[in-house]
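Notes, p. 3: input format for complexes.
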Amino acid sequence: MGCFLASLFFACNSEEAQVEESCEVETVVNPNGDSELALLMRQMYLDADSIKQLIVSNEGTISDEFITELQRVHAAIPTDSTVKTPEFKAFNDLLINQAKALQENTKDRVEGFNQLVARCIDCHQSFCPGPIKRIKKLIIIPI
Ligand code: HEC
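Output follows (143 residues plus heme C):
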């Protein structure tokens, strides 16, 4: 799946492996420092984790600030400029739509939040598989 989407824009084997490498979070050694997008993503992870706690404890939900943060992904400069394809934009729009749906959803926030995390993973499968294991930890396991 990831290969299929990626192959629309660049050869699957060699270059996708490169993207994957630059996305290995745990071992990342970037001589130019972390990209604007990487720093933004790190903050998104922390904020998503806080929203998760709010939903689990039934004390709140997603905020306007979080949605604004997601909108900043469109313009943020990545480590690897080849990720900025129409697919990347489409994946991010799907994530933003899900975030807005979650904000309006008062009934099933757990399901809505897990859908949001699924949208993070969709993009990562195509552009940056490294952090997927970590992102999966955001999923709320229903009791
Ligand atoms: C539109 C595609 C896309 C979406 C949607 C997306 N990501 Fe990312 N993510 C990336 C890319 C590309 C990188 C690599 C950034 C770089 O190195 O410049 C990244 C990097 C990361 C990283 C590693 C940052 C680091 O420390 O270097 C984490 C963690 C992360 N994303 C979490 C998330 C979470 C949580 C969500 C959902 C709320 C999400 N991502 C949604 C594309 C996406």
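The CA atoms of residues 3 and 136 lie 20 Å apart.
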